[in-house]
Every structure is written in structure tokens, then in C-alpha cells.
Amino acid sequence: MTARFTLRPMIVRVAATLLLAAVAADALTAEPASGADAAAAKPIAALQIAHAERGMLLGIARAGEQIVAVGGNGAIVRSADGKTWRQVPSPVDTGLNAVAFADAQHGWAVGHDAVILGTADGGATWSIQNFQPELYAPIFSILPLDAQKAIVVGAFGLIKATDDAGATWHDVNAPELSSDKLHLNAITRLRNGQLAVAGEHGLVGVSVDGSQWRRIPTPYEGSFFGVLPWGEKGAIVFGMRGNVYVSDDPGTASWKKIEIAAPVSFFGGEALSDGRLLLTGADSTLVILQPDGTVASTRKLRADGNESSLTGSLKLADSEIVIGESGVAAIPGH
Fold first, then answer.
1. Other Cβ atoms closer than 10 A to 160
2. Tell me, which fold does domain 271-334 have in CATH?
3. For residue 90, which of 2, 74, 80, 176 is within the disulfide window of CB 3.0 to 4.6 Å?
4. pLDDT of 85-95, one tens digit each?
């Protein structure tokens, strides 16, 4: 695999994606292509391979009764039950970092080369809505607001939005988040309707409408890789070396650290139906947090010395699906 850009070592989404794909150890070190060459680059469709669900997967989401996961080399796989998977055609062979749906039919997947793919049939078919390799900026996370509106965030302060189902994407001017060119790793909607972003150097930002953003001080200077709702209007952020913080109201800039015995980096998180929260991370680690912030359990998906990074999860009726470096795995429900 040839990398067309150079990224700083502190991109954990990339660490969980291209680095796990053996592109490099701590950073992507290939010389970037010239601006003209990058602008002239054309997308290449992903190869159809046997058991793509066993390769590196980085994002997972539900589309009605279907489950969709995306990952390395543009792979997109679907399943109705979490057991039998089928690869669907993808118009790009660059890594896809995240997937999300506004409803059972309309969704997006995002990844390297600032690519944004859209679907209107529950992930059965996909089309390119944005492709800008000249930016050298992967997109890491997407938040659908409804079938017409969505926001994506990525490397070097990239923020884009659409209000026409992806027919056009425009850059969002958010200097408090973008001026330092930090990587924005995750975006979510809190339960009070506000939006929240988490990224490098302890960056957390909040917005009422997705257009005007305010940066919130945090006590951590490392990278956050995920952000999720916490309580009625709070947020939980998680990232490197087991650093997890919660705030009942991010606007107050008051944060509490959750002490976790496993000092591993967390790449994914999921709110469970009973109010608990599941974190997934390096070394096959899964941690469940109670609604009050206490640690309910810590375990490793694998205990045979062949641990790999987990990047996300999805709760089913009787089991939990986790994804990561080694593809899909199902475990008994929590």
C-alpha cells in the first residue's frame, strides 16, 4: 500500500487504521505527491475479496435491519444477523474510517483522500460525494443530523457539512477548532441536542447548530479519539493510554477523570440500552462503565497472546459485535 501523505504521529484513528495495516510504525512517512498529481488522482474501486469481514474494520452502524461495517482498502460489508456477511461494491480502495446512518436507507461512509460516500438504499450501493486527495486529510467521523444534513470532521481541523443529502459539501468555518490544524477525531450529538467534537491535545468543542463552535478547556493534553453523550446534557471523551473523562455539562469546562486499570488507548465507544457504556480499544480490551462512571468490568476479547486493536462495537438482541484489526467478532451480550 502506498501512502500519499505524511501525518503527525498523534493521529490515533490513523494508528488504528493505516498503522495497523502496516503502513508505518508511528506515522505515515511516504513523501506526499505534488499538488497537481494529487488533484489529478482518480478514485479506484475496491477489490472484491473473499471474507472481507475478516480484514481490518474501523466503523460499524445499523441501517434498519441491516448492519454495515467499513474498513481498510475501501471495504464495505453488510449483514442481516451479524453472522453472515457479504461485501458490497465500493467505489474507492482507500481506507474508510467511519459509517453512520440517518435512517434505514440514508447514510454516509468517510475515509482517506477526504472521501465521502453516500447511500440511499441502506448500504447496498454507494456513490462518491467528495474526493479530495490533494488535501492530504482523511475524514475520521461523521454525524448525520437527518436524511439531508450531516457533518464530517477529520485531520488538520477539517469540518465539512451538507444540507442537501450530500449533493454538495461545504467547509465549515470554525476557527476555535480549526486554527491550530489539530486532528478532529470524533463528532456526536449530545442528548440535549448540542453537538460535540473531540480531537488532539485534549480538544473538545461544542456547538448548538454545527456552524458556530466553541472550544472547551479540558485537563488532558493528549489525544481524544471518541466522544459520546453522558447523562442528560453531558459528554464522555476517551483516548490515549486509558484516559477517560466525563462532564455533566461540557459548557462549564468541569471534567472528572474515570480511573481505568487498563492503560490502553480506546478507539471506540457505544452507549448500551441500559445506560451503561462500552469502550473498545487496544490489546483486545473491552471496558463497561456504569451510568455513575464506575467501572463495571474489564476484559480482553482474546487471551491467547494474539491481542489486536478493537475499533468499535454494535449491540444486537442476544450478542455484541465488535470490530477491529482482525475484522468482526461476536461475543455474548452484556
1. 22
2. Thrombin, subunit H (2.40.10)
3. 74
4. 999 999 999 99
